[in-house]
Amino acid sequence: MGKYQFEICTNSVESCLAAQEGGADRVELCAGIPEGGTTPSYGEIAIAREVLIHTRLHVIIRPRGGDFLYSDIEIRTMLKDIEIARKLGADGVVFGCLTAEGEVDLPAMQKLMEAAQGLSVTFHRAFDVCRNPQKALEQIIKLGCNRILTSGQQPTAELGIPLLEELQKQAVGRIILLAGCGVNENNIARIAAETGIYEFHFSARENIQSEMKFRNEAVSMGGTVHINEYARNVTSVRRVKETIESLHKRI
Q1: I need a surface site. Which of 96, 174, 218, 246 has the fewest CB within 10 A?
Q2: Do 5 and 198 meet the contact criterion of CB atoms below 8 Å apart?
Q3: Helices (H), the chain
Q4: Could you tell me which of 148, 103, 111 has the C-alpha nearest to residue 129?
């Protein structure tokens, strides 16, 4: 099991603690999970750093949901967020920028890479919506990123196995591929066996009901986007352990 690394996509300090207890090597701390992950708050990063003793902390740098075509002011925001993540003791940062044509935005990425010097850098799932993944892989390697988080340009990593296998062979040890999206205790062993990938990204969340006794379910905090205000998804120690152990059993 020594070669395998497990990263948990965490949505709170509570989830970070569960990831650590469950045996994760690393967390990716995010806010805005329904939007695919956005930059967490100063306080969230600071407290996560305090409580994560055995588990590395990576912070997503994404100023908004939606596409990965960023304006100059958004790039400035991302540069400041990288600076803050560094000051708060993050081990790594996670970001990715594309052009309007679906290519890797090299000038923007070079600015962010310079700001992130000394930190581990993951190019996130912007990769999964780029025009040419083989070309993008080579460009991301040249930029100096440490890894790419990808589902193989499919809705889940399990569906993306063919491209993940191809990209893993193309990478030939020059960059780490981190298989993510839909990875769980039921499919992680298959993804590992068929792709040769050895780093995995998953959330291992369970639905937790609110302890609120008084409820007004007619009001939505998201306006026209209705989310259940009285339930939340939190990473569970049990699911982290079960996912890691399910791979161990197949070795």
Answers
A1: 218
A2: yes
A3: 13-22, 42-51, 72-87, 106-115, 133-143, 161-171, 188-195, 237-250
A4: 103
